[in-house]
Structure prediction request, 201 residues.
Amino acid sequence: MTTAKDLFIISLDPGAEQSVGQGDLSLALAGAELIDLIGAGTVVVDGDRIVPQGPATLDDRLVAEAAAGLIGQAPHELIEDWLWRRGRGLAAAYQAALEEDGELTGRRSGASPFGPRHVRPVDSPARRRAVSRWEEKEPVLGALASIVGIGEERSDDEPGPADEAVTAVVAAVHDAVMELEAVRQRRSIESAAFANLWRGV
Prediction:
């Protein structure tokens, strides 16, 4: 399992106080993939750019797909640009992969066969590993989860990722999620103003 899959599983915790937005989660999953690629020595971070170093050594098809999409020529891709490009629809891709692997089970709520479908992790070694990392307050998983609203907000005195490159990725994920929220708020204000215009308010 990878940090991204662990994060996705944690995001489905039925004890979570609120559901995680797919856009926020997709950005965080892209960051988690990049962190695992850093840990595997596949990439290094030079300032705010991602520099490929070699083939992915992690035995995971989604991370391998991420590695295959790296830009190898200079100027190398900005971390922020990677998050937006790789993160597009990534939460749905992880859900599909985990369901295919039998790590998730799904059911529709209500009597209608067309009602919303809810998925939950099955009791498996993968889920137990993710929960163990979460309960042990592993810094990287905890930081990414906090950004998307899972668990309590991290305080400044809590230990964060020790690696500078990983810290840079976590910071970029935070900024991207904040930017996405700003876009949502702006669209909400614009929609409300448009509705008021039609109502003559």
